[in-house]
Amino acid sequence: MATIDKYFPGLDGVIASETAISFLDVEREKIIIKGNDLIDLSKDKEYIDIVNLLLEGSLPSTIDKVKLEEKLSSNYDVPSELFNILQLLPKQTHPMDGLRTGISVLSGYDENIDNRSLNKERAYQLLGQLPTITVNSYRIINEQQPVYPQKDLSYSANFLYMITGENPTELEAKIFDRSLLLYSEHEMPNSTFTARVIASTQSDIYGALTGAVASLKGNLHGGANEAVMYMLNEAKTVEEFEDILREKLLKKEKIMGFGHRVYMKKMDPRALMMKESLKQLCDKKGDYMLLEMCEAGEKIMVQEKGLYPNLDYYAAPVYWMLGIPIPLYTPIFFSARTVGLCAHVIEQHENNRLFRPRVNYIGEQYV
Length: 367
Ligand code: COA
Prior knowledge:
CATH superfamily of the largest domain: Citrate Synthase, domain 1
Strand order of the largest sheet: 1-2-3
Mean pLDDT: 96
CATH architecture of the largest domain: Orthogonal Bundle
Low-confidence stretches: none
CATH class of the largest domain: Mainly Alpha
Bound molecules: coenzyme A
Largest sheet: 3 strands, antiparallel
Structural class: mainly alpha
Strand content: under 5%
Number of helices: 16
Shape: globular
Number of strands: 3
Order of helices and strands: EEEHHHHHHHHHHHHHHHH
């Protein structure tokens, strides 16, 4: 039987691309984005700083930021027919599938779809439109009226306002913004790989993003944040949560929110930042239950499996305490990641070679 080369299941450890966008320096616990550490940036920068960094290559000045906020808010609107299309979706449709449909629909409205040089402008357009599509796909599927953006709020404050229907406090807006920043870009996860594979056929950015939504929906990837919250909600006390985890481990089930292909047996540095945000929310609300449950879970997983939390483990309780409906957790992750995905699609198109790997054939013998 022909064996072409060494096979790495799940492409574990395989270098799939050269990129100047980002790199997980696991040893030094840094997430490098265009030469900057995302964890350092998360301490005093905002999501739109990262948008500028990823799409323009540098951190923005104060004036650049004002202009960028204006640019994003000028792109909030979506074709009105899009809402009519979302209305036709069956009521059990997950908002990720609504989002996938919504992004797919946008391609038909792009009169210059074959002009790849407009992709950066498209990225800004998509970043503006994504919160509108994300929130309204959820609302329309749930037979609620669409909600419209408030252009006088910042990008993230408006996103959170559209989700909850209330103007967020400064702390809430800041914490939500940090979650978007931490989700913005993360080297070569499955969804980014998917987007680059699609882009490598010279397909368009909408198609690449549509594929990435499907990839990110899975529990082993972005879907984990929703799964974590459903698991936390199964328990009413710390002890109950510990019992649930121990039982799952006995049954050899995977515990959502733990483990990572790249960090493996190390803590995802983004999780630490989100845990800090969770603590701030608990302090503000005087309710420490979710933090205590999460910390107890963390202890069990380290002791029993040597596994540490990833970002989704702490993003889930943060979103819960911000009053965000669980089915929106993964769509929010995707919206935040859109900027990273667009940067990768642009880079792929700029220096393209078609992805076309081979297989180890283990089927029937042939002559
Ligand atoms: N809970 C329990 N066991 C876990 C685990 C988890 N969350 N994550 C990994 N493991 C175990 C596996 O069961 C496997 O054990 P085994 O060798 O005894 O069979 C071993 O660790 C390796 O796991 P594997 O799934 O092969 O690693 P991977 O690199 O392919 O997967 C993830 C990485 C992220 C998919 C995996 O850790 C996982 O499923 N985590 C939960 C989902 C999640 O939180 N996803 C978000 C990622 S950011």
